[in-house]
Amino acid sequence: MTVLKTCSIALTAAVLALSTQAATAQQPAFASVLKEGHGVSLDIGLKRTMVYFLSRDGQCKATFSTSDARYSAKDWNPTRVNVDIAPGKSFKMADGYGYAVAFKCSATAKTIELRPVLNVAYKAN
């Protein structure tokens, strides 16, 4: 019985570890690196954003699909934006409420680094 109990505990731990990895695979730990041909889904404030990119003509050619995060998958009606990001340059996606993520194209245009950005007004009167 002890061997069976030990195997059961080990199996439960393995399933929990895998389910935790699957749950966190959609939300990148900041800062994260996105490889060419791969995509990621993340929430930027109140917006759900899916992004993928390809390296073409020496640039990161990224496609962003964004919509309200409150909607379920069946109600998701995204806006799609294609952006060419030059090597070493960044593109910032913001939700309009202070949340933003910068997407920086690597020097080789083979990866994009995702980094949260504090999006505040420079000067308010």
Provide an overview of this structure.
This protein is an alpha+beta fold and 125 residues long. Helix content is 18%, strand content 46%. It is built from 1 helix and 8 strands, in the order H-E-E-E-E-E-E-E-E. It has one helix at residues 2-24, and strands spanning 32-35, 39-44, 47-56, 59-68, 79-85, 90-94, 99-105, 111-118. The protein has a 4-stranded antiparallel sheet with strand order 1-8-7-6, with no helix packed on it. Strands 2-3-4-5 form a 4-stranded antiparallel sheet, with no helix packed on it. The longest helix has 23 residues, at 2-24.
SSE blueprint:
Layout: H1 2-24, E1 32-35, E2 39-44, E3 47-56, E4 59-68, E5 79-85, E6 90-94, E7 99-105, E8 111-118
Antiparallel strand pairs: 1-8, 2-3, 3-4, 4-5, 6-7, 7-8
Explain briefly what this protein structure is:
This protein has one helix and eight strands, in the order H-E-E-E-E-E-E-E-E.
Keywords:
single chain; 125 residues; alpha+beta; four-stranded antiparallel beta sheet; 1 helix; 8 strands; globular; disordered N terminus
Largest sheet, described in full?
Answer: 4 strands, antiparallel
- Range of strand content: over 45%
Number of helices: 1
Q: Specify the overall morphology.
A: globular
Strand order of the largest sheet: 1-8-7-6
User: For the terminal residues, how far apart are their CA atoms?
Assistant: 72 Å
Structural class: alpha+beta
Give unreliable regions as ranges: 1-29
Q: Taking all residues together, what is the mean pLDDT?
A: 75
Any idea what the radius of gyration is?
19 Å
The number of strands is 8
Output the helix-strand order: HEEEEEEEE
Instruction: Summarize the amount of helix as a percent range.
Output: 10-25%
